[in-house]
Specification:
Length: 616
C-alpha cells in the first residue's frame, strides 16, 4: 500500500473555502485593526466557540484519566463533585456546535451582515457565560434565566440573517435555521421557566432530530471545499433537506396526534394511537436521508482520494492531510447512522424500544457516569451499536474544528514590513492545526478498541464497555500479550486525543485560547472559598507529579527494554564466538578427515548466517 499526497490538475481543481485575508499593508495600525476585526467575524467567533467547547472536554478528559490511572490523584479528588460540575458545564455548552456550524457556513459564503454578527455575539456570548456559571457551580437561577433570554434573542436574529449562495450552503442553511429556531424556543422556555408539558416535549423531540445538523453542515462545507459551489442539480443528494422534512413531520405529529418519537434521531417511530397514519411518510423520509447521506459521502470520497492500480500494486493518493482526515472522520460519524439503520432493520421493533431505554445526554448515550469505568448500572446491557454511536457523537465538534482550522489558514502574504508579522504567526500556528487530525486518529483508535471488545464477546456476553470519561476503553483482556497490546493502544489513544485537541485549539488562535483559560481560572479563584483554593492547589500539585512520574516511568521502561535487547544481542554474539573457538580444537582432535568434514560444516553454517543477515 503506497500512500502519497497529490494535488488535482488545474482543469479539475475546485476552489477552496475562503481563507483568512491578509492584513492591509499600508501601516501597522490598519493591519492590527483588521486582525481585531477578524476575531469578531464569523470564522473568529466559530473558532472561539469551538475552543471553549473542546476546552471543557479536554479538562473533563484530563480529570477522568487522572482518576482512572493514579491512586493519589483519585484520593486528592475524593469528595469533590468534579465530574458532575464539568458535565453540567458541557450541557450548558450544548448549543455551541450549532452556532459554530452557522458561523462557519456564513464565513464560507462571505456573509457579514449585522444580524449574523450581532446574533452570533449575543447567542455565543450568553452560551459561554452560561457555561462559565455552570463550571463555577454557583447556583444563580436568575442569572441563568437572563442569559437564556439573551441567547434566545441571538438565535432569533440568526434565523433572519442573510442567506449564502450555492446549493450546498443553501441546503445547510435551511436546516440550520430550523434547528436554531428550535434552540431559540428552548432557550425562551428556560428563560420563562415553563413547566414540563406538551411544549417542552415537542421541543425535546425536535432537538433530538436536529442533533445531526452540525455533522451535515460539516458535510456541506467539505463538499464545497472539494467541488466548489454546486448547482441546483445536486439538491436531491443533500441530506439536509430531508432532515428538515423530518423536523416538520415531528412537529405535525405533535400538534395533530400528540405523538412522541421513539428510537434514533433519524430512524424513529411515532408513539401515538394515530401514529401509523404518518408511518409511510416517515419511512420514506428516513430512507431518503440515509440514501442521500451515502451518496454525499461517496461524492466527497471520490473528490478526496484517488486509487491507482498498476502491475506492481496499487496506490491511494489524497490531497491536504487535514482535509483527508476530516473526510475520514466524516465517514465515521455519518456512517454510524447508516450502519445503525441497517442494524435496526434486521432486528425490527424491539431495537426501537431498546433505543428509547438509552439515556441521551451531552454526548448521546451516557457511557461513563463513573470515572473508574465500573459501568452504568442499567438493568440490561444495550446493543453494541448504541455504544459506538455514543463514542462517535462528540466527534461532530471535532469535525467542525477541522473545517475551521483549514478555513483559518491565512492566504499567502507579501514579503513586506507589515505582512511579516502575519506570515510569522501563520508559520508558527499552522503546524498546531494538524493536532485535530491527530485527535481524529485517537477517535479511530477508540472505535477499533470498542470493536475488538465487541468481537471478543464483551457486549454480546452481557458486559458494559469499561470506559473512562473520554470514551477510551479500560479493558484487561486475558493473556499477557493481549494486556500489553490493550495498554499500548489505550496510551496512544489518550495521547493522540488529549494532545491533539490541545494542539489544535492552540492552533486556531493561541491568544484567544489562553485568554479563555485565564478568564475561567480567575473567575473560579474569585468565586471559590479558601478551602476550595487549597484543595485545588493540592489537586494540581498531585496531578503535575503524577504526570511527570508517568512520563518518567515510561522512559524508564523504554530504557530497560533497550538494555534487555542489547544484552540479548551481546549474549548471541558471545555464543557465536565460543562456537568459533571450539571448531579448531575439534578439527585437530578428529584428524585430516574430521577436519575436512568440519570445514564443510563450517561453510554450511556460514552460509546460513549470511542468509539470516540478508533476511534481517
Amino acid at each position: 500500500l503506497k500512500c502519497s499526497p497529490f494535488e488535482p490538475s488545474e482543469s479539475v481543481r475546485p476552489p477552496d473555502l475562503p481563507h483568512a485575508p491578509p492584513p492591509p499593508s499600508s501601516s501597522r495600525g490598519p493591519a492590527a485593526m483588521a486582525e481585531v476585526a477578524e476575531l469578531f467575524s464569523g470564522l473568529g467567533i466559530a473558532s472561539a466557540l469551538l475552543q471553549a467547547h473542546l476546552g471543557v472536554g479536554i479538562v473533563l478528559g484530563a480529570f477522568g484519566i487522572g482518576v482512572a490511572s493514579d491512586a493519589e490523584f483519585r484520593k486528592a479528588l475524593a469528595g469533590v463533585p468534579w465530574e458532575s460540575t464539568l458535565r453540567a458545564a458541557a450541557r450548558a455548552a450544548g448549543p455551541i456546535p450549532l452556532l459554530a456550524a452557522f458561523a462557519l457556513a456564513q464565513a464560507a459564503g462571505a456573509i457579514r451582515d449585522t444580524f449574523t454578527t450581532v446574533g452570533l455575539l449575543a447567542a455565543g456570548g450568553a452560551t459561554l457565560l452560561a457555561t462559565l456559571l455552570a463550571s463555577l457551580d454557583l447556583g444563580l437561577p436568575r442569572a441563568s434565566r437572563a442569559l437564556s433570554a439573551v441567547a434566545a434573542f441571538g438565535h432569533a436574529l440568526l434565523v433572519v440573517a442573510a442567506w449564502p449562495s450555492g446549493a450546498q450552503l443553501l441546503c445547510a442553511s435551511i436546516l440550520m435555521r430550523a434547528a436554531i429556531g428550535v434552540q431559540a424556543a428552548s432557550a425562551m422556555t428556560r428563560a420563562l421557566a415553563v413547566a414540563a408539558g406538551p411544549t417542552t416535549e415537542v421541543l425535546a423531540d425536535l432537538e433530538l432530530v436536529a442533533g445531526v445538523t452540525p455533522a451535515l453542515v460539516a458535510l456541506s462545507l467539505i463538499d464545497l471545499q472539494i467541488w466548489g459551489e454546486g448547482s441546483m442539480a445536486i439538491l436531491p443528494t443533500q441530506p439536509a433537506i430531508y432532515v428538515h422534512a423530518l423536523l416538520a413531520l415531528v412537529a405535525v405529529a405533535h400538534m395533530g396526534l400528540q405523538a412522541r418519537i421513539v428510537g434514533s434521531e433519524l430512524d424513529f417511530k411515532l408513539k401515538a394511537d394515530g401514529g401509523r397514519v404518518l408511518e409511510p411518510v416517515r419511512f420514506m423520509l428516513s430512507t431518503l436521508v440515509h440514501v442521500s447521506m451515502a451518496a454525499a459521502l461517496g461524492r466527497v470520497l471520490v473528490g478526496t482520494f484517488r486509487l491507482e492500480v498498476s502491475t506492481s500494486g496499487f496506490a491511494i493518493e489524497w490531497g491536504e492531510p487535514i482535509k483527508a482526515a476530516s473526510v475520514k472522520l466524516l465517514v465515521l460519524v455519518l456512517g454510524t447512522y447508516i450502519v445503525e439503520l441497517l442494524a435496526r432493520a434486521s432486528k425490527g421493533e424491539a431495537a426501537l424500544e431498546e433505543a428509547d431505554a438509552a439515556s441521551p445526554t451531552i454526548n448521546g448515550l451516557e457511557m461513563s457516569p463513573s470515572a473508574d469505568g465500573a459501568g452504568l448500572g442499567r438493568s440490561k446491557v444495550l446493543p453494541a451499536m448504541h455504544y459506538f454511536k455514543a463514542l462517535v457523537a462528540p466527534a461532530k465538534v471535532l469535525l467542525l474544528a477541522m473545517v475551521a482550522a483549514r478555513m483559518s489558514t491565512p492566504a499567502p502574504v507579501q514579503d513586506d514590513d507589515d505582512s511579516s508579522f502575519a506570515f510569522l504567526t501563520a508559520l508558527l500556528t499552522t503546524p498546531f492545526r494538524y493536532g485535530f487530525a491527530l485527535a481524529g486518529g485517537g477517535v479511530g483508535l477508540q472505535v477499533i478498541a470498542l470493536l475488538a471488545f465487541t468481537i471478543t464477546g464483551g457486549v454480546a456476553g452481557g458486559k458494559e464497555p469499561p470506559v473512562d470519561t473520554t470514551g477510551t476503553l479500560m479493558w484487561q483482556p486475558q493473556g499477557i500479550l493481549a494486556q500489553k497490546v490493550a495498554s499500548t493502544v489505550r496510551f496512544m489513544t489518550l495521547l493522540m486525543l488529549e494532545g491533539g485537541l490541545l494542539l489544535g485549539c492552540a492552533g486556531l488562535n493561541p491568544v484567544v485560547f489562553a485568554m479563555q483559560g485565564l478568564v475561567v481560572a480567575a473567575a473560579w479563584f474569585v468565586a471559590s472559598s479558601n478551602e476550595a483554593r487549597a484543595k485545588a492547589t493540592t489537586v494540581m500539585t498531585v496531578g503535575a507529579l503524577a504526570t511527570f512520574s508517568f512520563v518518567g516511568e515510561f522512559l524508564e521502561r523504554r530504557r530497560l527494554a533497550q538494555e534487555a535487547a542489547a544484552a540479548r544481542r551481546a549474549a548471541a554474539v558471545a555464543k557465536d564466538l565460543v562456537e568459533e573457538t571450539k571448531k579448531p580444537a575439534a578439527a585437530a582432535a578428529a584428524g585430516p578427515k574430521g577436519s575436512k568434514a568440519l570445514s564443510k560444516q563450517g561453510a554450511a553454517a556460514g552460509e546460513k548466517k549470511d542468509a539470516k543477515r540478508k533476511h534481517r
